[in-house]
Write a structure and sequence with these properties.
The structure is a single chain. It is built from 14 helices and nine strands. The protein has 290 residues and is an alpha/beta fold. The chain has two domains: 162 residues, NAD(P)-binding Rossmann-like Domain (Rossmann fold, 3-Layer(aba) Sandwich); 117 residues, N-(1-d-carboxylethyl)-l-norvaline Dehydrogenase, domain 2 (Orthogonal Bundle). Strands 1, 2, 3, 4, 5, 6, 7, 8 and 9 form a nine-stranded mixed β-sheet that branches. α6 links the parallel β5 and β6.
Length: 290
Amino acid sequence: MARVAFLGLGVMGYPMAGHLAKRAGHAVTVYNRTPARAAKWVAEHAGAAAATPKAAAAGAEFVFTCVGNDDDLRSVVLGAEGALAGMTAGAILVDNTTASATVAREIGAAASAKGVGFLDAPVSGGQAGAENGQLTVMVGGDPATFDKAKPVIDGYAKMVGLMGPTGAGQLTKMVNQICIAGVVEGIAEGIHFAKRAGLDVEKVIGVISKGAAQSWQMENRYKTMNAGKFDFGFAVDWMRKDLGMTLAEARSTGAKLPMTALVDQFYADVQAMGGRRWDTSSLIARLEKD
């Protein structure tokens, strides 16, 4: 059992922290910007809640963060009341936020100056993966730090991989989002085409999902896409945030991402339709709009 702090109890962080407490048996102290959310978590999982990131991190061997973006991450980690202010040398900070590689390196440098280990460790698997403890975790950082933290990260994951030095986890998550964007657009166009051609979508997917076109997105999203229901996962606003960071990184490295840039604009269309909180499979909605 380890002394753990978890900062950020959103749709991902809430169940992730729960697995660390109940499934893995760690002593968990939580912090959330909305105290009522932290109080609810404690009532459900025991443990403790703290009023500031610094207080939550005090005495913790491992501190996990899972917040919205770069600025949110800086706010809970840096500064007089941030997590690093409460951590001691030898402790490890694990960031599960999907953020930029730039902020990962910034936080990593600040942690190193205090003798604290740091891993950027964004996750994939969505809300269902978090709730079921079946997330894929892409990690950047020092191998020795990774080896110490992996048994704890395993508490909410099915796959944990060290991808390279600090920032490599975030860069790998960008690859993940590039691939998802292209796959979801392809499925949206395929279903749209099948419907316009007078085909039975159920029969079509039943056949092609057993061949080379098969994917997680196809298996898990085609029914709701076909029904025009989009309340089942990662929101369009968050996908646009991720694709924006990905495209910015591509510009800095010279990588060419024409498909990603195009799908990002398609998601902008969905936002304009009122679909900011629809899940990412809602790309089909813009195709079927009259």
